[in-house]
Amino acid sequence: MPPAFNYPDDSLFSLDQHLGGGDVAASVITSASGPSGQLPLTDEILRSWSSGDLFGLTQNAGMGWDPARMMGPQYLCLSTQGGVRDHDGTPIALGYHTGHWEVGLLVQAAAEQFSEAGGVPFAAFCSDPCDGRSQGTNGMFDSLPYRNDAAIVMRRLIRSLPRRRGVLGVATCDKGLPAMMLAVCGTKHLPSVIVPGGVTLPPTVGEDAGKVQTIGARYSQGEISLEQAGLEGCRACGSPGGGCQFLGTAATSQVVAEAMGLTVPHAALAPSGQPIWLDIARQSARSLMALDARGLTLADIVTDDSIYNAMLVHAACGGSTNLLLHIPAVAQAAGLKSPTVEDWHQVNKLVARFVDVLPNGPVGHPTVRLFLAGGVPEIMWHLRELGLLRGDAMTVAGASWNEILDAWPQSARRDALRQRLIESDRVDPDDVIIPPATAKKRGLTSTVCFPQGNLCPEGSVIKSTSIDPSVVGEDGVYRKAGPARVFVSERDAIAAIKGNHPHPVQAGDVVVLIGRGPLGSGMEETYQITSALKFLPWGKHVALVTDARFSGVSTGACIGHVGPEALAGGPIGRVQDGDQVEVVVDRIGLHGSVNLVGTADKSLTPAEAEALLASRSPHPQLAVDAKMPDDSRLWAALQQVGGGTWSGCVYDVEKIIATLDAGTKALQEKASD
C-alpha cells in the first residue's frame, strides 16, 4: 500500500490565520481607471445594436482587447480543454485524460490566426470525462449521458455569443468529440470546423494504453509481477497529450469527423503537441474564415452522403462499435435520416476492413502510424478506387472529396509522411493502410455483425473481426455453446473473471451481464471485462453477452447493445445460471445469432425456448443500479422515448413532448375518475 500522505502543519486551514491577515486586507483596491481609448461606435451601431451587443464590447475592452480592433468578425473557439498547465507544460492541476490536456495549445494557435487576420477570437470550454479512468467505477454511469448533456451545453455556449460568425470545435476523445459534432451539427446554420485533438505516442518500450488497462486482471491471475505491473502502468503514455494509441472510440471519432467533411484534410490522429498538429489548428482557422467569407455553413457540408462516407470509413478501419451510437446521433442533430441497423449491415457487406491498427490485427499498429500512412484521405482514396465513395460530398476545406483526392496521391504531405514512417519505424505504409485487394488475400474481412435471436430479438452488435482466429472455424464461423454465468453488476463479473469469487468464470462459460443498458446503468462500458478476457490465456474460450456497450478497444467474442435491454423487458433478463446459450457469428457472411438452446438439464427446441423465456419472470436481482445518479436516470428515460440504443440514444423533442402531454392527460383523467 502507498504511504499515507501527511499534510504539513503549516498547510492546514487556520481560522485565526484566515480571519487575521490585516496586511492583505489593507491592500484591497476599490476602483480603477479602466481601459484607455474609446469604442469605435457609429450612429448606426448605437441605434440598431442591442444593449447586449454593446455591453459585450465594453467587456471586451475590460478584458484588455484593443478597442481599435473591436469590430472584427467574432469566431468562437469551443474546446474540451481540461487541467491547468504551467507555461512549460508541467501540470498545476491535472485533466481527466491526456486527450484534453494539450488542446489549449490548439485553441491558442487558432485564436492567433483569427487575430492576425483581424478577427476577434473567443474561447469557451466544456471539459469531458475519461472512459478509461471511469472503467469499473460508478463514474461510468455518467459516461454516455455526458455526451447529450455536453452537446446541449456546447450549443448553449454557441448561441450565447450572439455575434459569432463561426465555430471552431476542438475536441479529442470518447464523449467530448461526439458531443462537439452534435453541437456544431445542431447549429448547422453557421460555418464550423472541427479540430481533432490528435493522439499520444506509444512508448518506445512498453505496453499500449489498451493493454495496460489489464494489469489488475493479469496480476490477479499470476500473469505478471507486481513490479512489472507498476512499470507498465507508468510508461504506457509515450507523450503527455492526445487520445489513446489505439483505434478506440476516441480515435474512431476523429476519423469519422474527417470522413464527414467536418475537418480539414488529413487532420485526424496527428501526434499531439508536434508542429504538424499545431499547423492543423492554424489551417482550420483559415478554413473557417474562408467558409464565412463564401457564405457556406455546415448545412452545405453535412449531408446524407457525408454520413454514408463516414460509415464506409468506419467499416474500412474496423472502428469502435460506439460509433453506432454516435453517427446516428450526429445525423439526427443535423436533421438528416439516421442510419438503421440494415444500413450498417449493407455498408459492412460492401467494405471489408483494410486498415491494420490497434486493437485489430494482424499486426496492430498504433494510431500515429495510421496518420503517417496517409490517414483518412488514403482510406477514402482506396474507397473511391473501389467505386464506393460519394466523392461529391463537400468538406470544410471548401472542396469536395473528389477534388481533395485528385490532389492527394501526388501531394508533398503524403510523400513526406509515408517516407517518415518507413525511416522512423521501418514500416511499409501499405502494411498499415493495406490496398484492399491485398487485404483480402491476407484474410481481412468485414468488421461489424448484428446477431439476432431469442435473446436479442431487436438485435445486438459484435466486432466479428476481433474474435481470436484460433477459435473460429475454417469456414469463418465462430460457434460457441456453453453454460450461462449470469451477473447483474460488472463488479461481480470482473471479480469472477479475476478469480475473486466463490464461483470463478471458467473456459467454456458464456458470461451474461444484464441490467447494464441505458435504463440500468447509463449503458456503461465493460472494457474491464473484455480486456481481461483478451489477455488471460483461457479468455478466448469465454463469450460475453450484454445489454451494455464496449470500449472501442474491446476485442474477443463480446456481444453488446442487446435489445431490448433487460430492464425494458428484454428476454436477456430471464436467462438463468446454467442455461445453455449458443452464439454463432459468421465473419464472412456477416450473420449471427444468440439463442437460449437449453436449460442446465436438457436441450430445447426453438419453440420450447421461446415459450420458456416468455413464461419466466425476470432475474430476481435485476434492477436499476442503486448508485445510478438521478441525472442519468432522467437521460435514460428521455432517450428511451427517442428510440433508445438503436436510434443513437438521442433526445427526440417532439416525441418527448407528445409523451409528456399524453402522460399528463392520462393522470388528469385518472384523478377525475
Automatic annotation (TrEMBL):
It comes from the Bacteria. Its EC number is 4.2.1.9. One of its GO terms (cellular component) is cytosol. Residues 452-592 form the Dihydroxy-acid/6-phosphogluconate dehydratase C-terminal domain. Residues 97-403 form the Dihydroxy-acid/6-phosphogluconate dehydratase N-terminal domain. GO terms for molecular function: dihydroxy-acid dehydratase activity; xylonate dehydratase activity. Pfam families: ILV_EDD_C (PF24877), ILVD_EDD_N (PF00920). The keyword Manganese does not apply. InterPro entries: Dehydratase_YjhG/YagF (IPR017798), Dihydro-acid_dehy_C (IPR042096), DiOHA_6PGluconate_deHydtase_CS (IPR020558), ILV_EDD_C (IPR056740), ILV_EDD_N (IPR000581), IlvD/EDD_N (IPR037237). Signal peptide: none annotated. It is an enzyme of class 4 (lyase). PROSITE patterns: ILVD_EDD_1, ILVD_EDD_2. Keywords: Lyase. Belongs to the IlvD/Edd family. This is Dihydroxy-acid dehydratase. It comes from Rosistilla oblonga.
